[in-house]
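User: quick one, sequence for these tokens?
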């Protein structure tokens, strides 16, 4: 009965046409020697020699793989989804060759055809439709920048207690708008099991990095010059020097980040549908990934130029570009189901900045001036911006290398129901 069921399943998929060619092959894929028409199985040949019965073995290795990944094959709506899932489980084109297939895509076609389905979906069903451009997520990604610009305007028009109130309300509004933008559209990621600790840690590190971009350079310079008492009272930001132009540019960059993520997802889906093997897909997606990354850096540079010109402040290009690149790569990896590496990179950058502040503060203790020597040397050579630039730049470079390996795999772009 199992043989009958397999024959029925074979007739449903074009990928199974190759199985009929293997009917005359032995267990190891080689052609079986011809048998005399007069000889019965296990009986003597005309010459008197006895023919041994053919050894029964695993003549259908694909069946074992089907049982191993049956859940994946049953819920798949297209062979490409199975190919992405197999790759996520470590199946490569070399592994597919052991199952008598030229690549993982061909193997996925056979697995898809063998699974019985009650619906009408077939191998021609479109697996990965292009994500739609929706007005709701466009408006949500514009909201952080608009609210950030309004907050800075309010700070410049108010004084005293109303200014503190405007700052508190503005920061809260920007935070809520950013959270909404990350929950809808191309920057939204599906929650996975046991990820709440990673998500909380990533969120805390991101807030620290943004806070340091606003206040860190001024605070570090004041600590190295003699402590918080040395902070200038007449600075544009009040008693604490603030870098509002880079922060406004980062909030405005939420919109181009969403568009870059959308372009990456849409382009990867088109290339996945047109690829015939995993190497072909990787070669096609790599230029797309680095192209969208470069496009975002160009957009952020333009926003920094405009913000610095309007607010008459330094744009702080090195550290802001490094931070923007780090945040974009971390979000792209999170959206495509790689949460551990972004958490580590963001944590390392935040820890580096925190250590620089701690060492500069500890140097004020008697006999501890040597602790601030590395930070003092770095600041004397390249300025206070060298600390966040190096911390975020190295972390961003590590994430870029990691993204070049992970976001160019078909499994990173498998359909998961992520909202458009």
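Assistant:
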């Amino acid at each position: 009965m199992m043989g009958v069921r397999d024959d029925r399943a074979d007739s449903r998929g074009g990928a199974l046409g190759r199985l009929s060619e293997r009917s005359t092959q032995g267990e190891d894929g080689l052609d079986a020697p011809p048998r005399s028409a007069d000889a019965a199985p296990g009986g003597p040949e005309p010459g008197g020699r006895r023919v041994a019965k053919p050894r029964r073995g695993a003549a259908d290795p694909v069946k074992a793989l089907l049982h191993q990944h049956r859940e994946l094959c049953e819920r798949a709506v297209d062979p490409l989804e199975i190919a992405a899932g197999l790759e996520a489980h470590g199946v490569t084109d070399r592994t597919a060759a052991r199952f008598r297939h030229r690549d993982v895509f061909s193997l996925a076609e056979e697995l898809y055809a063998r699974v019985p389905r009650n619906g009408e979906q077939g191998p021609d069903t479109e697996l990965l439709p292009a994500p739609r451009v929706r007005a709701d997520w466009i408006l949500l990604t514009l909201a952080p920048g608009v609210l950030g610009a309004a907050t800075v305007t309010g700070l410049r028009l108010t004084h005293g207690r109303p200014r503190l109130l405007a700052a508190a309300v503005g920061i809260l509004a920007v935070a809520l708008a950013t959270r909404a933008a990350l929950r809808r559209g191309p920057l939204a990621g599906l929650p996975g099991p046991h990820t709440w600790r990673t998500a909380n840690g990533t969120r805390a590190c991101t807030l620290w990095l943004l806070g340091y971009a606003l206040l860190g350079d001024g605070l570090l310079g004041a600590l190295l010059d003699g402590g918080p008492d040395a902070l200038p009272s007449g600075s544009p930001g009040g008693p604490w020097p603030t870098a509002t132009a880079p922060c406004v540019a980062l909030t405005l960059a939420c919109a181009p980040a969403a568009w870059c993520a959308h372009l990456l997802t849409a382009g990867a889906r088109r290339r996945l549908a047109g690829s015939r093997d995993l190497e072909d897909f990787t070669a096609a997606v790599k230029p797309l990934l680095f192209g969208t990354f470069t496009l975002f850096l160009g957009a952020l540079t333009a926003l920094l130029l405009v913000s610095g010109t309007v607010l008459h402040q330094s744009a702080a290009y090195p550290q802001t570009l490094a931070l923007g690149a780090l945040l974009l790569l971390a979000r792209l990896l999170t959206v495509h189901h790689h949460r551990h590496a972004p958490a580590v990179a963001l944590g390392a950058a935040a820890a580096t900045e925190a250590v620089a502040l701690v060492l500069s503060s500890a140097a004020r203790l008697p006999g501890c001036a040597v602790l601030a020597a590395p930070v003092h040397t770095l600041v004397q050579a390249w300025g206070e911006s060298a600390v966040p630039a190096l911390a975020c730049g190295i972390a961003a470079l590590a994430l870029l290398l990691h993204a070049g390996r992970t976001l160019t795999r078909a499994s990173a772009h498998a359909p998961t129901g992520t909202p458009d």
